[in-house]
Amino acid sequence: MDWLGPEEWQAVRLSLRVAFWATALSLPFGLLTAYALARWRFPGRQLVNGLVHLPLILPPVVTGYLLLLAFGARGPIGELLGPLGISFAFRWTGAALAAAVMAFPLMVRAIRLSIEAVDPKLEEAAATLGASRLWVFLTVTLPLTLPGILAGAVLAFAKAMGEFGATITFVANIPGQTQTVPSAIYAFLQVPGGESSAARLVIVSIIIAMAALLLSEWLARRVAQRVGARS
Amino acid sequence: MTLKVSVSHAYDGFSVQANFEAPDGVTVLFGRSGSGKTTVINAVAGLLRPDSGCIEIANRRVLDSKAGIFVPPHKRRIGYIFQEGRLFPHLTVKQNLQYGQRFVPSGVVCEDLDHVVDLLGLAHLLERQPVGLSGGEKQRVAIGRALLSGPELLLADEPLAALDETRKSEILPYFERLRSELSVPILYVSHSAAEVARLATTVVVLQDGRIARQGSAAEVLSDPTVMPTGVRAVGALLAATVKAHHADGLSELDVGGETLFLPKVSQSVGQSLRVRVPAQDVTLALTRPEGISALNIVPGVISQIRSGDGPGVMVSLETAAGMVLARVTRRSAGQLGLVEGMTCHAVIKTVAIAPEDVGGPAAGA
Description:
heterodimer; A: 231 residues; MetI-like fold; globular; B: 365 residues; alpha+beta; CATH 2.40.50.100; 2 domains; six-stranded mixed β-sheet; five-stranded antiparallel β-sheet
C-alpha cells in the first residue's frame, strides 16, 4: 500500500483501530441490550429502546457535544474516570467511544431482529429437555443468532469507520491522535493541493464500506437460511 | 400413581379445571380442540404456570400454588413431544437426539442412544439436518430426543395431528412400542378416537375445560354421552387374536370365539390386538342374513338402547366377542321392533374397519 502517503496511512490505521475497539467493546452490551429488547418485558423498555436509537436520529454534532459534556475532563463521568487513568478527551479512545455510541443502534437493531427470528418454541423445547435458561441461550438462541450478531458487528464496524460529526466534535481532528479517515479527508480538502490525498482516502473508504456491506448481506442470508429452516 | 394433576387456570374468558390421576401406561387426554387439553399438558410441563393447583410427577411435587412451589420445566424431568416436532435446525439428527443427555442427573439410568436409534429406526438419518426430513421422520427424531433426556414422564401433544394418514400409521406403532417396551408413563393429548383405541390404557375426557369422564379406553369409546368428538366417533373396542392371514388380503381374527375378517393386519399369527368397530359401520338384522357381501356377522343380545337428540339411536349388543355398538336410525329401530333383551345379529362390513383402528398388543384394554 505504498500509494498511500504516511499521513494517509496513519489515518487508515487509526480508523481501523478505532473501529475495531469500538465494535469489540460494544458487542457484549449490544447483545445484552438486543436480547433484553427482544425477549424481556420490563418497565421502561420503550425508554431504553429510544435511548439506544437516539444517536441515529440526533445530529451527530449534538451527540458529540453531549459526549464532551459527560466524558470531558470536567464532565461528571470524565471526572470519575480520570483518577483511574481512563481519559477520552482528545485521544483515540474518545474517537472509539464516539464511534461506538454512533454505531450502537445499528448493531442492536441487527442482533435484535435475528433474536426475534428465533422461534421461542425451540427454546421451550430445549427447556423441556433439561436445559436451564443460560444453556438454552448458549446452545439454541446464540447459535441461531450468530450470523445476525456477526452482521450487526460488521455494520457497526463500517459505521465506526465512517463516523465523523460526533468524533470531530468530541475529540477534534489531531493527526495521529484522533484523525480518522473521514476527519483526514475533511482536513485534506481544507488545504490547497490536498485533493489527491483525499481522493485516495475516499477510495479506501468505499472499498471498506462495500466489503462490509457485502459481508453483512451474506451473513444476513445465512441467518435467514438457518432460522427459516424451522422444524 | 405416577402423575397427579389438579389445576385451575383462566384466560380469555375460558377456564380450565382439571383434576385427575394417571396410572402407568398411556393416559390419553381426549377432547376436541379448545377443550383445554394443551393448557393441562403445558401446566404439567411447566411451560404454563396455572392460576392455582398442585402437580406431582413420580412423587415429586413440581407445582403447589399454596406452598409457592413452581419447578421450572428444565428441572421437571419430563420429555415433551410437540405437535410440530420442534427439532433444532442448526443441529444434526444425532446432535438433536443427544441434546438432553448432558442434562440427565448423574446416577440416573436412562435409555442409551443405540437402543433408541434402533427402536425408532433412525440409524440412516443420524448425520442429516432436520430440514431435509419428512414429517414422520422429524416426529420419530422428536420422540427419540425426548426419550434420551431421561424423563420420568413423557408428554405428547397431538404428535400425529400434523401428519397425513400414511405418516400417522407410520408413527403409531412406535408409540405402541414405547408403551410395551418402556416403563416411562405417557400423557398423550389427542382428539382422535382411533388413537385412543390403539394407545390408551386410561382415557381422561376433557369437555369445555372440565373433566367429563375418566376410564378405560373401551368404556369411554363406547359411551356416546361423553364422546367429545361426536357420536360418529363412538365405537366398541374388541380384544382379538390373529388366527390366520389369507391370500386374498384378509386376516382372520378370533374375538372371544367369534370370527372376524379384516383387511390384512400387520400382527403375526397368534398375536393379540385391539380392534375398534365404529358404531356407525354396524348394521343390525333380526335373523342371520344370507346372501350379503358383509363377511362378519356376530349374534348377540341387546343390552341397551339409548336415544340421543338426533335421528339415531345407539344399540348395545352383548356378544361372545364383547360389547358391540350399532348406530341405527330411530325409524329402523322402530320398524324392527328392537327392545332390550332381544336377540339379533350385528353385521360388520369388513372394509369399514380402517387400518388406524387396528392396534398392537391389547395391553390394558
